[in-house]
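so im writing up the methods section and need the Adhesion G protein-coupled receptor F3b record in one place, dumping it here so i stop losing it
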Amino acid sequence: MTTELLQPLINSIVVAATTDGKQRSNTEVNIKFGLLKARPRNVKITCVYRDKNKWSSEGCQWGGPDNEDSCICNHLSSFAVLMSKEPLKVLWLEQVTYVGLGISIVSLFIGLLIELVVWSDVVKTNTLYLRHTAHVNISLCLLVGNACFLASSETKSITEAWCRTSAVLKHFCYLAMFFWMLCLSTTLLHQTVFLFHKVSKKSYLRFSLALGYGCPVIVVFVTFLSYGAGSEGVYYSKDTCWLVYSGLFKGSIYTFVIPVATIVFINVFSMLVVIMKLLSHNQNADMSQEKEKAAAKTVLRSVILLTPIFGVTWVFGLATMIIDLTSGIQADVVNYIFVVLNAFQVGSTLFMKCNRKPQPLTRKHSHKVRLGLMLKMKSIYSLV
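--- predicted struct ---
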């Protein structure tokens, strides 16, 4: 449900429609108005006629955001267009955003703390090292991106410099999140296809840092320079502190959408190849290969879960930019879905951290794990 603020203003010349004969009961008048001022996004227009000493909208209907200069009325009179002074707002959307992002930030911090405490006990193979390194960096990117999202939510009360900086940081962090998912799928694909070509942890880390952070830096840097050196209305919008959507394949938002869509496509392709390779895996493989296969299945579960969750979230994110709030209930639904998915997608990363098949522990190993956790927690408390 959208809410409207302030009284509307007249945004067209007054047009009178008359007829020489008697007016019919089924009269339909379709009038094209030349708007005196361009309609900003999400701003409602009302078609009205002069009823004695006041404007009335009875019997008149606006053409909608796709036909914004059109009015259809079922009677004759003097017509005009009224435009709201402020954009429409979705009821309770801001409150849901604040609560969701707050929970998301706290959950991400807890998830990173869990990784820190149990790191040495869960990273047993190169494949698991790949998985947990990627999860840590995905969580870091989400944490910084969501914090910037929350810090720039009140766009009217922040400076232009911070709004621009926030847009750049969100652009980089959310892109980096997807590029780290690409690291997961490509290295998993490599290890599955080339079973005997082992990659060291150092080589993997160099590759992942270059792909996970290097590529987003290049994309953001080139975009920033290409779109008016980060100017307002070209690179970012002051109303959202986010990238600009100017129409189909127009605007800086597509420097985010196109890389994300490409990564999702590559991830889907990689998942299919890995699944086929695992199904045709040699039954006589040695124990070390069996361990790597089990680890690869764990990483595959991560990619299968994270790719649709993050991908679907930003499909709705693009939809919120395309669908105008004056379009009706569907615009409200899309906005609510995006805010909820964006705020609570962190639950999927926490789930993947905890979703490990429990292994039987000997008394000696159990004591070692407990001792390690106690020492790590002691070192954390000493830093506080």
